[in-house]
Every structure is written in C-alpha cells, then in structure tokens.
Amino acid sequence: MFKLKYLQIIVLFALFLVFGGGGTSLHAEESKEEEPKKNNSAYQKITVENLSHLYWAVGKHKLGNDEAVDNFLFINECDIYQSFASQEFEWQSIRESGKDFIRQNISSFPLRFEFVQALKVKDYDFRREGFDVLDKHKIYSTRRFEMFAANALHAICGRRDNIAHYPKVLVIELTRPFSMLFLPVEPETAKKYIASKELFFKSLPKHKQTKEFLYDSRNIYVVMKVKLFSYQGDSQTPEGIDRADVMGVLEGYDVYADQERTLLLHSESFRRRKKSAKGKDALVEKFQKQEEAKEEKAEAKQE
Question: What does each C-alpha distance from 225 to 160, 208, 212, 250, 274 come to in angstroms?
C-alpha cells in the first residue's frame, strides 16, 4: 500500500496551524525525512486502501469533490477523521491539506495490481509436458474479472457498508482476452507439485481416494498482474455492493502450487521495453484520449 506517513505529517501540520502553531520548520524537517517513495511499479494487492489511491490515479475523482477527499481521509486516516470531521473549521484545513497531498503525490499512486484465480488441474500430460485445467475451472477467452477487495467485508473506520465514491469491488476489463486451458510445467517441477499434493490425498479415507478427489486436491493459484489506466464507471453487485469498472493491460502472470507461493509452476511476462511496446502504449493512449474527450464534452455542456 502507498505509504501514508507523509499524509499524516501534512494533516498534523494543518492542525498545528489551526491551533495557533508557529512557522513551518517542523514540517520542512519531517517532510524531508518522511517523503513518500514512488511505488507504482510493484504489483499491489486489491484492498480498500489501495483502491482509494487507484481511483484518483485513473481520474475517477476531481479535487473539487470535497466528499471524495473527505472519504479518502476517512479510509486512510481514521483517527484524524473521527477526531475532527465534526469540527468544521479544523476540518476545512485538514481537507485542504488532504487535497495538497493528493495533488503532490497522485503520480506515484499505484496503477499496477495483482489478483488471484484459484483453479484445479488433472493428470500430468507427458507428451505436452503440463497439466490440463479441470474442465469446470478452465478460463475461456475472458476479458472481465470481478474482484472483491481483500478487506471488503471488514469494517473500515468502524463502517462495513458502502463508502461513497470508493467501491470495494473492482471489475477489471482487459484489453485482450485471457485463457487458461493448459498449464505448461517442466517435469522436475511437476514431480514436486504432485508430491506436495500427495500427502493430503493419501490422508483421505480409502473410499475417497478416487480420480475425482485427486483432481479436487490439485489446486493451482494464478497470480495475474495488471496495469490499470482508465476508469469506466460505477455499478453495483446483486448484493448492493458498489463496484468500479476499469480498463487494464495484462502484463504477465505467475502460477503457484500453493497460496503461500513457495513453489512456482509457470510464469509469463508480457512487459516489453518501450521500443517494442509501441502497440500497447498506443492502445492505452487511445483509451486515455477518448476519456479526456468525454470529460471535455461533459464540462462544455455544464458551461
């Protein structure tokens, strides 16, 4: 998650001024020490906190939206929000400091995220050197993936319901479809994988030691790595949970034998050097220009 110590310093400095503090030397010294580090190249987990940063990075919010700024602080600075949100004069100063923080650091808010698809595989195919994905777990040319934040059902600053402007569910639409029907695995790695699942299978009662239960024990975890670049709108799940639609580019994926990611089975990377990635860059730029044109058109209508 994006480091928030710098935001805390800015907000506390605003309070320091509100309550009659002196000059700015304290802020200057501490901000040098705690300056946020850019963290937009690593793949982040999908959490409510990380999504709150993403929505600013992909243009979902404008700084003129006070409620969006307030709820950003609600999510990321709960103690300060609970202490001062009901005090209009103090909160006005805190809100402006929050806007300054977003304005100064939005370029380093995370755009790259990872999400996991849990699948199951069948027997090892010696001719093709890999595993067939179990039929009901196969992914056929899919572009849209709906992912709940890891802490979507947890209380955020004491609240479990929807937080205005900050959906806890993300619908990722990839620029190109993704399939997972067969998993290539080198024989030596396949041996380790099969052995890692054997202990659990052998612990089952004899009447359950069948092909059906064998395949059911053969879990794999596909860690998909995406770069998100365009906000497309909001909707709701059938249960009434807010969700946001975003466009993204699949930059690669890793497949592990276990949730702890101790045994890597297969890996693919689609990231290229800038010179050889012109096609992907052009596609991203096209979507971004389309979104900018939509915003300009909407603003012209309002005027």
Answer: 28, 36, 31, 6, 18
pLDDT at 295 exceeding the cut of 90: no
Q: Domain spans of the chain?
A: 5-37+59-108, 112-271
- Considering the entire predicted model, what is its pTM? 0.79
Long-range contacts of the stretch 76-79 (C-beta < 8 A, 24+): 76/4, 76/7, 76/49, 76/52, 77/4, 77/7, 77/8, 77/11, 78/156, 78/157, 78/158
Would you say 151 and 223 are in contact if contact means Cβ atoms under 8 Å apart?
Answer: no
Q: How far apart are CA 92 and CA 170, in angstroms?
A: 31
Compute the distance between CA of residue 13 and CA of residue 148 in angstroms, rounded to an integer. Answer: 35
CA distance 292 to 303: 17
Once rounded to an integer, what is the mean pLDDT over residues 63-87? 97
pLDDT of 92 > 90? The answer is yes
